[in-house]
């Protein structure tokens, strides 16, 4: 196989991984709707426990045990991991609560806003400069959020919480000298004692849903591990093979699928105020995407 053919094959494989990752995250509400009989904290705890078992096995199989142990030494890396753990736990908790509470459309809005929050963090924290199209994009998106705030009488707190927490988590991970697999293994490991403690308390208090809704429901809860880890592995495979501009386009697939699910499957209301806000953010994201594509060609 020639070098060009090999590169083309790698790119096609990267695209397949990218669509698999963002497509999996897009249909994630279907999973949480299927297990919504369990309380939010129990769902989060199952996600942590079963994901930790799977991720730890994958990490050791990949020979990353020394990197995992090195990250546990007290210092800057461990501090960043602790901060990232708090952020991702909060993000997971809010997302599960949003989906099981019938607020998938608000969650999708949050993940549409997320790339724009990333841009703002780059300016504020990393000292990056905004090109003119990106400046307009931020202003238009801000106008959409402001319109929604005026119409609803309060800011879209859930959407903003998801967007900001995940953007801050992304910033922390950018500063961490760890791979995605080791990082997530550490984060779920730090959350594991709290997850086990909650499950033990819920069992003692007679509030645990696990093993009360039949074997099928229990198997769905056990799937929380693969549901968490497998899309991340797909994403890692895509990130290694695709340019950032391509990944930038693919990231909009996930909230788009969630938006369509909210509209067509879950029957959530798409009000005029939401329509204006979504339109503003879609225009803003289109500006950012076009600017990124042009810069990538150059």
Molecular structure report:
With 298 residues, the protein is mostly helical. It has one domain (3-297). The chain is 81% helix and 0% strand. It has helices at residues 3-26, 28-34, 40-61, 65-71, 76-100, 104-124, 132-152, 157-175, 180-204, 215-222, 224-241, 244-250, 253-264, 272-297. Helix 7 (132-152) packs antiparallel against helix 14. The chain is globular. The mean pLDDT is 87.
Quick description:
The chain is mainly α and 298 residues long. The protein is built from 14 helices and no strands. The longest helix is centred in the last third of the chain and has 26 residues, at 272-297.
Strand content: under 5%
Task: Return the string of H and E elements.
Answer: HHHHHHHHHHHHHH
Radius of gyration, in Å, reads: 20 Å
The assigned structural class equals mainly alpha
Helix content: over 70%
Approximate shape = globular
Report the end-to-end length measured between terminal Cα atoms: 29 Å
Q: How many strands, what sense, and barrel or not for the largest sheet?
A: none
Number of strands: 0
Fill in the keyword field for this structure.
single chain, 298 residues, mainly alpha, 14 helices, 81% helix
List the helices and strands and how they pair.
Layout lengths: L2 H24 L1 H7 L5 H22 L3 H7 L4 H25 L3 H21 L7 H21 L4 H19 L4 H25 L10 H8 L1 H18 L2 H7 L2 H12 L7 H26 L1
């Amino acid at each position: 196989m020639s070098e060009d053919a090999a590169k083309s094959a790698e790119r096609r494989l990267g695209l397949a991984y990218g669509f698999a990752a963002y497509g999996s995250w897009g249909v994630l509400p279907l999973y949480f709707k299927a297990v919504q009989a369990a309380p939010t904290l129990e769902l989060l705890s199952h996600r942590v426990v079963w994901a930790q078992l799977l991720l730890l096995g994958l990490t050791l199989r990949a020979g990353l045990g020394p990197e995992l142990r090195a990250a546990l030494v007290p210092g800057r890396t461990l501090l960043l991991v602790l901060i990232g753990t708090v952020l991702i736990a909060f993000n997971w908790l809010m997302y599960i609560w949003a989906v099981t509470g019938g607020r998938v459309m608000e969650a999708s809005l949050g993940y549409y806003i997320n790339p724009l929050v990333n841009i703002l963090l780059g300016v504020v924290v990393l000292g990056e400069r905004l090109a003119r199209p990106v400046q307009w994009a931020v202003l238009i998106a801000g106008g959409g959020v402001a319109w929604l705030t005026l119409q609803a009488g309060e800011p879209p707190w859930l959407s903003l919480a998801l967007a900001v927490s995940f953007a801050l988590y992304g910033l922390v991970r950018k500063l961490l000298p760890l791979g995605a697999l080791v990082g997530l293994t550490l984060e779920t490991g730090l959350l594991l004692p709290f997850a086990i403690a909650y499950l033990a308390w819920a069992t003692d208090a007679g509030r645990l849903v696990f093993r009360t809704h039949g074997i099928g429901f229990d198997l769905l809860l056990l799937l929380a591990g693969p549901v968490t880890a497998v899309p991340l592995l797909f994403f890692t495979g895509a990130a290694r093979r695709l340019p950032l501009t391509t990944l930038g386009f693919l990231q909009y697939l996930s909230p788009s699928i969630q938006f369509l699910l909210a509209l067509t499957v879950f029957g959530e209301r798409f009000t005029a105020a939401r329509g204006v806000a979504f339109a503003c953010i879609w225009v803003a994201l289109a500006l950012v995407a076009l600017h990124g594509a042009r810069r990538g060609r150059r």
